[in-house]
Amino acid sequence: MVNFEGDLFLGFDLSTQQLKIIVTNEHLKHLKSFHVEFDKVYGKKYGVKSGVRSNQETGEIVSPVAMWLESIDYVFQQMKEAGVPLENVRGISGSCQQHGSVYWSEKGTTELASLKKDSGDGGIDLEKGLAEHLSSSFSLETSPNWQDHSTGKELATFERVVGGAEDLASLTGSRAHYRFTGLQIRKIARAQPEVYKKTDRISLVSSFVASVLLGEITNIEEADGCGMNLYDINTNSYSEELLSLAAGVHQGEDGSDPNTSKTGSDELRRKLGEIEPVTYKSSGAICNYFVEKYGFSHTTEIFSFTGDNLATILSLPLNQNDILVSLGTSTTVLLVTKNFVPSSQYHMFKHPTMPDHYMGMICYCNGSLAREKVRNELNEKYKQPKESWEKFEEILNANTQFDHKLGIYFPLGEIVPNAAAQVKRSTFDEEKKKLVDVDKWEIDEDVSCIVEGQTLSCRARLGPMLASEGKDDGEEFANIKRTIEDVISKFGEISTDGKKHTIKTLSARPQKVYFVGGASKNTSIVSQMGSILGSQRGNARVDIPNSCALGGAFKASWGYACEKKGKWLDYDKYIGDSFDFSELEDIKVEDKWENYFDGLGMLSLMEKELKTDE
Ligand code: ADP
Ligand code: XUL
């Protein structure tokens, strides 16, 4: 029997394929989770497959909003029936798929407000579900999904107006991406002007769920708001120019006169609502519909919801310069940093709970599948079982030093760096100071080369985000400086994605590295990666199956604690105080960080020679 005693908190995870809600207690302990899979329950009714409707021809991918509403009722009903004492829930927050947007009609505000009424005479009918109560609330019945690819034209426009991909990243934290909200809004404003006109308010998926729980439209949360290509992270305000572009009234691109342009961008600002700086404060209490129907207390506080990647970092006590390496099908690296060093190759968002901090996110396409390809060929050569990692591990464990062989393995086109599908193997001729291309070497060589190449790519891109300001004039730094100067004399200036590295960016080391995801089970891979990344406070493996939902519940718990104290509590300390550290498995690594400066030199040269699709 689960012990639901004491204050409870809920963490939502509204992802592409399911809604999950987890219950935690005041000690951050995960008590129970409930979920609904969209395909299973709503596949037929809403015509979704893997949670979405897709149009192969246009690249359009959307999710029905009413399905999400039904799913909230569905999961709350499950929780009620399971006897979760919902009256003891003190706070709710959560994580939602990023970039998606929900389009409210004018009726939305009144229909939402009806959820605040009680069920007395002429009040709310509790027999009806959310989808029925909000049946006229949307000017668009679907929400563009993050997998959508239909905004190619908008993508080019967004980058062009600000001077290119790098400039857009400097302004908003990311270059333009199909899925980013601003592009999706522009597409709708231009292709369906009547829908855009009828749209009274626009929410992100995160602020949409919070709005439903509140019974009123709430502001977009700042960290998730950085996923729109509209928010100027330097000034903490919308970019006027990008707003006018999203509204389809840009002077240059749309030929609008200054007046129309200004009115149009003001109108979109109103639809979106202002974005308020990251806060611990509650957005308000849960509305009556949920109190009467499911037994919540009138005092249950709703704390702003955020994006799923942002919620993931909230599930661990991550401090400045800590890194989370997620080794799933693709590789995603998340980092907490105080440095805003944007790049077209990765994303930067405001941190959802730590003011003056950012979350960096690097998403690689070629992760596990590329390693699997090497493993398969290796197993064929040694007549090993197809799926076994044993031989791969044996070779990796024997790799004790960098031997100036490096590979870049992109069986699929890559995002970071932007490159076509290809494999590149090189050695380095020290005398001629030149790369030597190698067409093929023994598959055994590929084993260490792929892990080294993938890790060095992360290290090169993390460097600027990790680099400290200030002076470093100790003896240790002087030695590193000499080493790096030697490396530069050998390889020339080292640069990544067109930006020159400095001694500081090359010598920066992460504090702690956490490994998660499928391939993190492989101790040889993670210890090799750890030894190259060179963390100062160790490496840990962690298995958090509900990390997004957990991050949401922790955010609610932390917000509630701050509210009680009436002041900011350091998020990482708050989580650290109750976190069950036995969930972390320490990974022993041999520190080979210094040996890999030459690797960074080689990678810098090799990446310059990669073929692109253009
Ligand atoms: P997803 O990104 O789809 O959530 P997972 O986090 O489950 O995926 O990771 C799946 C990947 O993990 C697989 O592609 C597989 O190559 C890799 N993986 C699983 N176990 C191991 C292992 N022992 N060694 C190396 N890779 C592994
Ligand atoms: C991040 C992104 C995805 C979705 C998945 O930029 O688009 O991770 O948030 O839900």
From TrEMBL:
<dbReference type="GO" id="GO:0005524">
    <property type="term" value="F:ATP binding"/>
</dbReference>
<dbReference type="InterPro" id="IPR042024">
    <property type="entry name" value="D-XK_euk"/>
</dbReference>
<keyword id="KW-0067">ATP-binding</keyword>
<dbReference type="InterPro" id="IPR018485">
    <property type="entry name" value="FGGY_C"/>
</dbReference>
<keyword id="KW-0418">Kinase</keyword>
<keyword id="KW-0547">Nucleotide-binding</keyword>
<dbReference type="GO" id="GO:0005829">
    <property type="term" value="C:cytosol"/>
</dbReference>
<comment type="function">
    <text>Highly specific D-xylulose kinase which participates in the catabolism of xylose. Xylose is a major component of hemicelluloses such as xylan. Most fungi utilize D-xylose via three enzymatic reactions, xylose reductase (XR), xylitol dehydrogenase (XDH), and xylulokinase, to form xylulose 5-phosphate, which enters pentose phosphate pathway.</text>
</comment>
<dbReference type="GO" id="GO:0004856">
    <property type="term" value="F:D-xylulokinase activity"/>
</dbReference>
<feature type="domain" description="Carbohydrate kinase FGGY C-terminal">
    <location>
        <begin position="325"/>
        <end position="558"/>
    </location>
</feature>
<keyword id="KW-0119">Carbohydrate metabolism</keyword>
<comment type="similarity">
    <text>Belongs to the FGGY kinase family.</text>
</comment>
<dbReference type="GO" id="GO:0005997">
    <property type="term" value="P:xylulose metabolic process"/>
</dbReference>
<dbReference type="GO" id="GO:0042732">
    <property type="term" value="P:D-xylose metabolic process"/>
</dbReference>
<keyword id="KW-0808">Transferase</keyword>
<dbReference type="InterPro" id="IPR043129">
    <property type="entry name" value="ATPase_NBD"/>
</dbReference>
<dbReference type="Pfam" id="PF02782">
    <property type="entry name" value="FGGY_C"/>
</dbReference>
<protein>
    <recommendedName>
        <fullName>Xylulose kinase</fullName>
        <ecNumber>2.7.1.17</ecNumber>
    </recommendedName>
</protein>
<keyword id="KW-0859">Xylose metabolism</keyword>
